[in-house]
Amino acid sequence: MSKAIYIATTEPNSGKSIVSLGLMQLLLGKAAKVGYFRPIIDDFEKGTMDSHIHTIITHFELDLEFTDAYAYTRSEVVKQKNLDRDDEILGHIIHKYKAIEDQFDFILVEGTDFSGEGAIIEWDINVLVAKNLGIPTVIIASGTGKTLDELIGNLFMAYDSFKEKGVEVLMTVANKVDPKNMDIVSVGLQKKLPNNVLVGVIPINPLLGNPTVKEISKELEAKVLFGEEFLNNQAGGFSVGAMQLRNYLTHLKKDSLVITPGDRADIILGALQANISANYPNISGIVLTGGLLPEKSIVKLIKGLSDIVPILSVQGGTFSVTNQIGTIRPKIYAENTVKINTSIQEFEKHVPTTQLAERLITFKPRGITPRMFQYNLLKRAKSEKKHIVLPEGTDERILLATKKLIDADAVTLTLLGNPEEIKSKIIELDIVLDASAINIVNPAESPHFLEYATTLFELRKHKNVNLAMAKDLMEDVSYFGTMMVYMGHADGMVSGAVHTTQHTIRPALQFIKTRPGVSIVSSVFFMCLPNRVTIFGDCAINPNPTAEQLSEIAISSAATSIAFGIEPKIAMLSYSSGASGVGEDVDRVRKATEIIKKKRPELKVEGPIQYDAAVDSKVGLAKLPDSQVAGQASVFIFPDLNTGNNTYKAVQRETGALAIGPMLQGLNKPVNDLSRGCTVEDIYNTVIITAIQAQGF
Question: What is the pTM of this model?
Answer without folding.
Answer: 0.71
